[in-house]
DNA sequence: ATCATAGTCGTCTCACTGACGATAAACACT
DNA sequence: AGTGTTTATCGTCAGTGAGACGACTATGAT
């Protein structure tokens, strides 16, 4: 019964991107304003159709490049450019998620360093970074009277899933370094954890932990004082991808 | 440019199932023999097309019921039948993964208690439990000269991903109880961990750990001696879904 | 000089794990 | 009945690692 080529319903397949970065001590996601109905004028996650002979990860990387100029390197391809981390997140296929037609969307998660300065994509719609807190607490009010309109489609759910993935994944992997520039200090890395988790961490215990985990950080020899205060050692991400034992997210 | 209803390429969307259980001290997966080309006669994961107005999880549950009679309850639906655990695993969409057409498959992971006695699905193809070790070590030789033919399509990769998900998820969640019947002993739960991880665990430390984690196990009052030896207390799964601190998988 | 800021090193305590001894309660033999 | 085997369960002890927090260092700002 299966595999009668004329007997399967056709689907549209898209990729949606949860692009996260840390800006000004808070976790932000890339959103674009929709220029057409449905949800015209609302914010949405960037994304688009998968092409006829294009792999899912390739489609995600292409959309990312179109939208931000970032060059994603997924972990399988260890071409360590200035690229961001890209991984598949989950797939959303509720029959009613798009009112126009049956669309199955394969969401991807991208973790990028700060300040790629979002540029408008091929379309004229605008793009911006928005704090995930404001995007998800649609019931609450943004800090400065920000728009409280929820994201288009089921994108709030997708974003929430992506944020949760990022929050849990930096516990047991070295992925937090994907939010940092090529060289960074322990303090900068700590501020990434604090922004993603939304908690305060003890600088001394954090320093002991990350410098004591073999393969996590390698010193470059340089120092910097860009954060003020005493100069800090600069590090690059080490080869280790899994943290064992993991970073512990403080209770509640 | 996006969302021109005539401008997106049509895809077939399927669900594939990684159904895992523990039988005779080893982790086994449900496989079906393909009755038609391509890969005719080879073993494959059960699965099928998503219907036109069917949710992805619903399609997975339907295929599971057709194939095994199991009633899956996904965690969102806390209808705790004799059902198995079901969750989305990942999506596979390589343009060449199916030689006939462009198929995107949303793989799901099912964890089931032992012995649902696989029944043939709607089709005449046979179904069986096979140790994942034999299915994945296609280069090696099965214990009893089992067939060494690899799984059809990219199903070996999907199975490997599902097994890895199960192995890591029982570390920090109470999901191992999904492999157990409604009432079980600490020893039975330990043998689940041992089978999934492929290691031996110290019975005394394991007992201390699981009985000391609040919300993991609740005693039913009964005892059983079905494993031989001293009678063991019976437990049900408690309300806790996350284990904190996690079970630690022994090194190497 | 003094202060504020941020980084780095140490110490103490507690929780938890791994290794492993000891006891308990069933069954299968003799 | 006794002995051995099997599995369950309780205890002990040492080592690792995390949280709390004191102390010191090196820079820029006032």
From TrEMBL, chains A, B:
| UniProt GO MF annotations | hydrolase activity; nucleotidyltransferase activity
Domain of life, per lineage = Bacteria
Q: Which Pfam families has this protein been placed in?
A: NUDIX (PF00293), WHD_NrtR (PF21906)
Membrane as a keyword? no
- Residue ranges constituting the Nudix hydrolase domain according to the UniProt record: 10-154
Q: Which UniProt keywords apply?
A: Hydrolase, Nucleotidyltransferase, Transferase
Coiled-coil regions listed in the entry: none
Q: Which InterPro entries match?
A: NUDIX_hydrolase-like_dom_sf (IPR015797), NUDIX_hydrolase_CS (IPR020084), NUDIX_hydrolase_dom (IPR000086), WH-like_DNA-bd_sf (IPR036388), WH_DNA-bd_sf (IPR036390), WHD_NrtR (IPR054105)
Family annotation (PANTHER family): ADP-RIBOSE PYROPHOSPHATASE, SLR1690 PROTEIN
**Which named protein is this?**
Bifunctional NMN adenylyltransferase/nudix hydrolase
Q: Which organism is this entry from?
A: Streptomyces jeddahensis
């Amino acid at each position: 019964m299966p595999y009668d080529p004329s007997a399967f319903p056709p689907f549209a397949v898209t990729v949606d991107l949860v692009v996260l970065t840390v800006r000004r001590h808070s976790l932000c996601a890339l959103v674009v304003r929709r220029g057409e109905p449905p949800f015209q004028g609302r914010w949405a996650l960037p994304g688009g159709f998968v092409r006829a002979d294009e792999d899912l990860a390739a489609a995600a990387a292409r959309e990312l490049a179109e939208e931000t100029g970032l060059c994603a390197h997924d972990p399988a391809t260890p071409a360590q450019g200035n690229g961001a981390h890209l991984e598949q997140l989950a797939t959303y296929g509720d029959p009613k998620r798009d009112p126009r037609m049956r669309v199955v969307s394969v969401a991807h998660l991208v973790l990028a360093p700060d300040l790629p300065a979002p540029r408008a994509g091929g379309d004229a719609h605008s793009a911006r970074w928005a704090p995930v807190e404001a995007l998800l607490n649609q019931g609450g009010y943004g800090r400065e009277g920000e728009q409280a309109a929820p994201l288009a489609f089921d994108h709030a759910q997708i974003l929430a899933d992506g944020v949760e993935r990022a929050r849990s994944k930096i516990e047991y992997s070295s992925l937090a370094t994907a939010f940092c520039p090529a060289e960074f200090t322990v303090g900068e890395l700590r501020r990434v954890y604090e922004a993603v988790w939304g908690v305060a961490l003890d600088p001394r215990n954090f320093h002991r932990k990350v410098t004591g985990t073999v393969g996590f950080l390698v010193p470059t020899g340089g120092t910097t004082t860009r954060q003020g205060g005493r100069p800090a050692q600069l590090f690059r991400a080490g080869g280790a991808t899994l943290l064992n034992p993991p970073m512990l997210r403080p209770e509640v």
